[in-house]
């Protein structure tokens, strides 16, 4: 049986918040930050839910190292 994603609870909280706030991301920054904190606690690839944040970080790193 596959392991439950360690950050599933936080992802569900984001969905609840977005639905309750007419999908205004700005009203859900606190719960989004909780998911980011959860993702930071686990090794890369451990959480499918965190893969979007991991990709975002990789893109930031790539842009940082690209000569202007």
UniProtKB/TrEMBL annotation:
Quote the Pfam families the UniProt record gives.
Answer: CMC4 (PF08991)
Q: Does the keyword Disulfide bond apply?
A: yes
Q: What is its main location?
A: mitochondrion
- Show the stretches that span the lipid bilayer: none
List locations, semicolon-separated: Mitochondrion
Does the keyword Hydrolase belong to this entry?
no
- GO CC term (a single one): mitochondrial intermembrane space
- UniProt name for this protein: Cx9C motif-containing protein 4
Q: Which domain of life is it from?
A: Eukaryota
Protein's organism: Moschus moschiferus
Q: Which family does it belong to?
A: Belongs to the CMC4 family.
Q: Which UniProt keywords apply?
A: Disulfide bond, Mitochondrion
Listed as disulfide-bonded, the cysteine pairs are: 7-38, 17-28, 39-50
